Amino acid sequence: MAQTDQFECGGCGAHLEFDPKSQNMKCEFCQSEKIIPVEHTVIVEHDFFSAP
Ligand SMILES: [Zn+2]
Questions:
Q1: Is the dihedral of CA 20, 24, 27, 32 positive or negative?
Q2: Ligand 1 centre and the CA of 18: distance in Å?
Q3: What is the distance in A from the centroid of ligand 1 to the CA of 42?
Q4: Which residues contact 27 (CB under 8 A, 6 or more apart)?
Q5: pLDDT tens-digit readout, 5-30
Q6: Neighbours of ion ligand 1 (CB under 5 A)
Q7: Where are the domains of the chain?
Q8: Strand pairing partners for 18?
Q9: How far is the CA of 13 from the centre of ligand 1 (A)?
Q10: CB-based contact 9:19 (threshold 8 Å)
């Protein structure tokens, strides 16, 4: 519980970044995507991308 939602790439073990386009976690190194398990999904109301 020390870390917030973080996922490791199954291919290269790198830290996955959230990709807004696919709504999945994506590895920037090998481009593999990981579908976020439903139980870990947080409902986000697009606050991240709201432009002033
Ligand atoms: Zn990777």
A1: negative
A2: 13
A3: 23
A4: 9, 11, 12, 14, 16, 17, 33, 34
A5: 678 898 899 999 988 888 889 999 99
A6: 9, 11-12, 14, 27, 29-30
A7: 1-52
A8: 25
A9: 6
A10: no
